[in-house]
UniProtKB/TrEMBL annotation:
SUPFAM superfamilies: Dihydrofolate reductase-like
Functional pathway: Cofactor biosynthesis; riboflavin biosynthesis
Keyword Oxidoreductase: yes
Organism encoding this protein: Kribbella rubisoli
Protein name: 2,5-diamino-6-(Ribosylamino)-4(3H)-pyrimidinone 5'-phosphate reductase
Tree of life domain: Bacteria
Gene3D superfamilies according to UniProt: Dihydrofolate Reductase, subunit A
């Protein structure tokens, strides 16, 4: 299985507080044609009002599966996410200690870990189900956890020509050696830099 993470960052390594061309971000992200998009609950919650207000196009049969790490069962917009017109279906990733769901909940679930989702086990289970490519859509806690666990094979950074100055850095834990795969320079000064993670 190939696990890739793409994120937009500033030149000083901050992942928010500047404008991102989302059409370009997702056009580039679509190049991997991932079968599963792995997202954290906080990323979903940050967009929840937009998701709920978006037109319900219905599931896209050929789209990836949206798998959301949600060990505290904080996400409630499952139907709206499924109907956004990008994903084929949604999968809630829970842990043993996740609060009970409503009895009428119909969202598919995968339970791993005790009080937190076991990310390595999730990838193992998805691999057993035939998934070959997973794209992690995170610039924060989920990405850092995946990097700490050596679960990421490829990193693609869309580096924006801006110094944000303050804010959480996307990676601040330990040294990682990377092999440069390629760089594309866009007219507005954004660099798309791709690296393989050396284990
Ligand atoms: N710049 C970019 O390219 C980009 C990309 C994506 C998102 N974002 C932005 O980033 C913000 C959200 O970032 P965030 O860091 O708050 O959230 P996040 O990336 O969504 O990560 C939080 C999720 O990670 C899970 N998690 C964290 N550590 C874990 C571990 N060790 N094991 C298992 N699961 C773990 C949490 O689990 P629990 O369920 O237990 O809480 C939670 O579901 C949003 O504003 C979003 O828009 C930016």
């Amino acid at each position: 299985m190939h696990v890739v993470a793409q994120l937009a960052v500033s030149l000083d390594g901050v992942a928010s507080g500047f404008d991102v061309d989302l059409a370009r971000f997702y056009a580039l992200a679509s190049l991997w044609q991932e079968e599963v998009t792995l997202v954290g609950a906080d990323t979903i919650l940050a967009q929840e009002s937009d998701v709920l207000a978006a037109p319900r196009r219905g599931p896209r049969a050929e789209g990836p599966l949206l798998a959301v790490v949600d060990s505290r069962a904080r996400v409630h917009s499952w139907n709206a996410l499924r109907d956004l017109g990008y994903w084929s279906d949604v999968l809630a990733l829970y842990a043993d200690q996740t609060p009970p769901r409503p009895p009428d909940a119909t969202t598919r679930e995968l339970t791993t870990g005790y009080d937190q989702v076991d990310l390595a086990e999730v990838l193992t289970v998805l691999g057993r189900r035939g998934v070959r490519t997973v794209r992690v859509d995170s610039s924060g806690a989920l990405l850092r956890a995946c990097l700490e666990l050596d679960l990421i094979d490829e990193l693609a950074l869309l580096v924006h020509p801006v110094l944000v100055g303050s804010g959480e850095r996307w990676f601040d834990t330990r040294q990682l050696n990377l092999h440069h795969v390629g760089t594309e320079v866009f007219k507005d000064g954004v660099l798309w830099m791709r690296y393989c993670v050396a284990i």
